[in-house]
Amino acid sequence: MSFYAFTPFSSAIFPNSANISFHTLPKPTSTRTQPAPGRTMSTPRKQQTFTTLHSLYATSGTVTIHSSSSDSPILVPTPSPLDPNDPLSWPPQKKRTAFLSICTFTFLTNFGIGGLTSAFYLISLEFEKSLPETSALLLWPILVLGLFNFFWVPLANYFGKRSVFVLSCGLLFASYIWGALAKSFESLLWSNIVAAFAGSSTEALGAAMVNDLFFVHERGGKMGVYMNFISGGNTVGPLVCGFVVTGLSWRWHKWIAAMLTGINFATVVLMVPETRYHRVEVTGEGGQQMSESEDNGQEKGKVRGDGEQGQQREGIVAVPKKSWVQELSLWSGTPKDDTSLWKMFLRPLPMFAYPCVIYSFLGYAVSLVLTVAVNILNSFVLQAPPYSWSPTVNGLINIPGFIGNLLGSFAGGWLVDKFCDWRSRKNNGVFEPENRLYLCILPLLITGAGCVLFGYGVERTLHWTSLFFGYGMVSFALTAVPTITMAYVSDCLLPVNSDALMLVNGSKNIVAFGFLYGIVPWVEEVGYVECFGTQAGIYVAIIVIGMAVLIPFGARIRYAQAKWRIIL
Question: Which helix (DSSP H) or strand (DSSP E) does residue 469 occupy?
Answer without folding.
Answer: helix 464-492
